[in-house]
Amino acid sequence: MGFYYLLLLFIGIVFLILGAFKKDVSWSTKIVILLFVIGILFIVIALILLMPGSSDIIAELLDLN
Fold first, then answer.
1. Which end of the chain is more exposed for a tag (fewer CB within 10 A), N or C?
2. What whole-number distance in Å separates Cα of residue 54 and Cα of residue 58?
3. What phi, psi does 57 have (nearest 5°)?
4. Structure confidence at residue 5 (pLDDT)
């Protein structure tokens, strides 16, 4: 179960790093969008992890059995 959480965290970090290195967007716009996305991501992950059977939900999202 902890492996799935670590995998989701790693994928999220990779996406954030890739998004931060886009050169055609101003820095202030990047920060606002980044904070908004991180906030929504934290809320969604917290809600999923607090639900009963969260390990089953994550296994279904990642197509693992």
1. C
2. 6
3. -65, -45
4. 67
Distance CA(61)–CA(55), nearest Å, equals: 10
Q: What does the H/E/C string look like for 1-52?
A: CHHHHHHHHHHHHHHHHHHHCCCCCCHHHHHHHHHHHHHHHHHHHHHHHHCC
CA distance 33 to 56: 31
Per-residue model confidence (pLDDT) at position 7: 75
For the chain, give the number of residues.
65
What share of the chain has pLDDT > 70, as a percent?
A: 86
Return d(Cα 36, Cα 49) in angstroms, integer.
20
